Fold each of these.
Amino acid sequence: MYSGVLGRIGFIGMIGLVCTGVWIGCKGKSKEEPAQVVAKAEPTVDSRYATWKTFEFQNIKIMYPPGHPQESTLTNMGEAYVYLIRKVNEILGMQPITDTLTVYYYTGFGQGRELTGQQYPYADSQAIHFWLPSFYGPVIMQYLLPRWAPDPPRHKFLKHGLISMFDLSGQNYHVSTIGYKNSGEFIPLEKLAIDTATNSNEERLQSAEAASLCAYIISDFGAHALRELYLSPVSFDSSVSQTCFVPVDTLQNRWLAFVKLNVPKDSIRD
């Protein structure tokens, strides 16, 4: 069962590697003809965006202020969103998203925080609010996860694991997990499940391990099993027993064995 991960879902940080031609800062040519930028202001109820321009790529609508320093990369941004939505739909078994996705693209964290009152890029049920420095994936996952599982998880590390798994950062979180194991920083699964400090915006230990675990569960048990764990109202121990039919320590051992099969051999220390 372990061997299927690199063929069907070689994603984790690896999803960033397979789409390096479309993530932040890339300049590859698009196979699709982008829509023309609308030079005049598009009517909007919210006065904050009354003078912003609109750029459309397939079903992605990007709104941005005139003179945006990243205006030349809007096609790449549209490609990245279309690609990631398709991959998430495929891997998590979601219905295709056909609605138009609106992205408010701020000039940077200064404008983003001033207009939204939020510290980090985020998404709600209506739109994505994005600015640099950041990666495209986290906000897409914030937008998609409620469509995959309508209720927030009792064990929030699973949510942050999925956000990290699809973040398009190019990081390989299997390698990160082995690195934490080698250095003695590894957080055992029973503790990770109740760790209140897990936050994919602010740390890269708990969320990296969680991303690796989510990939393992999808590979070995299927996306439906991960969704059951995600929505389970009972303790994590009970959730794992009911869904995976093994105790938590056995799940951890199998997860780490899976990780070792999916990282370079020189990164493993016995």
Amino acid sequence: MFLGSGTIVEVAEARVKSLGRILKDYVAKNFSGYVIFRNDVRGVYIFIALVEGRLAACRSIEAGRVYEGAECSETAMKYLYEPEGVIEVQNAPHNLLILDATIFPLSKIERPTSLSSLLGAEVGVQRVVAAPPSPSITVPPPPAQPVTTPATQPMPKEVAVAKEVTPEKPVKELPPQPQPVPPPPPPALPKIEKPTEAEITVSSECIDPLALYMVIKSGQLLEALTSPSPYRELLEKIRNIVKERKPSYIYISGELEGATLKILYDSQSSSISITIEREGASICGNEARKELEGKSISNVKIWHVA
């Protein structure tokens, strides 16, 4: 949601340490960086920028809609003590936070909100003071050096050379030679049709958390399915999106019999990574694919990154 990213200093499950508690702790520490809340199942993502403990900017996605500034802080109020989700805290340099607030001006929080009052935090980035410009020093140009031109030398006169003219010999005409007949072209080989797109394979690894974070950060919600769908139908949707849009990544989230399903397609490897999370345990790769066979997945949402 913001372009900048920093060094991860804390990751916590919301059921263990809530978003409200983490925000209060880092506001009290005069922290500068990002506090990020993610709930993949509900499709909620909240990015809050703190500058020296001040509430500086906020962007969020809820039900496929983007909220910024004061509206975003009101959205965050609903998830301060939500038990489902993950909170990530990133330390970031001061200038990067200011750059994000400049690129996304609607995200800036410039007046007190319910969130800032609850956290006891000031708003805005008024503490940033620009350094005075350094005085310029004018260096005089070096003195011009005299230009000396070489004395002109007289050009030698052209020497006329007499060419000896030799009489032309008569050309003897030769009889016409028969032209060689080119060999017949070889018979055309039967045309072999190549597959239009590479087969999508299933990776044996779990989804890379860093790759998933980048997709969630810059991806766009493409579709939200209202009815449950089988795994084969989701695989066919991935093939169609690859063919029509040629994305870098495709991310699918859903629910499967009380578990959370995550599928991430990577165009560089033409493969998908599958992770099923249930009661703190994860199933990945072909084992996860076998569990999906013959079952329907509900609450499906599809994102893509161009």
